[in-house]
User: Fold this.
Amino acid sequence: MPGPNSLIWVAAVTLVIWIGIFAYCLALDRRVRKLEEER
Amino acid sequence: MTRDQVRTTLHWLLGIWLLAVIAAAFFYAPTARSFKGESARIVFFHVPQAWVAVLAFCVNLIASLRFLRRRELLDDARAAAAARLGLAFSVLATVTGSIFANVMWNSFWNWDPREVSIVILLVIYAAYFALRQAVADDERRAALSAAYAVLAFVTMPFLVFVVPRIYWSLHPDTIISSSGAIKSQMDPRMLKVLIASLVGFTGLFVWLYTLEVRVARVLSARRAQEV
Assistant:
């Protein structure tokens, strides 16, 4: 496993953060769409 | 293709685009010579965050002016959504700036004009939400916060663009010159990644903003049904 200061480590953390934000936004988008359809 | 399908495709494209930006920021862009270690790579995230904050405050101004002209509560919701995102991206820009400052100058806070001016801007827009919380009536809250948003925006160009150029600053040279041109001394590969990141973050802002406005629309329709 790379050390905490290595570039790969920082890139991996950034990637995980982005994937988390992206998945959350997609889920939220789906939920809002459902609410709009119900309306 | 339906509107929803177009929207979903654009979201996935944005997801892939920003994945590519992250990969390029760490493995394609070269190491900047005049910066400590790999610290300059934060520019690919810090600058777009600051740009999105400015963009969000501009959208806040436009929506507030529209509210003052048309008196529609949806414009107020638009203004609030933009201000919320502007505040969030300002916080992110401040945090990433502090991390960079700690690497370069061994301190998270240096009383640099740019650091101080972004904190003043944060306080101004935080007060916008304090004002919104303090007024119960929807119409009155919308009118007061729209007027406040116009006044708040007046300070923004001064704090973001004028103050840091007047005083001596630790902050690296601005990437966009006073004439609006992108300075060419940056490595072309770095410049490509930075522009790609600016485009990606702008897309992310548009997505988050439209999500917030759609939620506001659903909520206002629900409230209207209840009444």
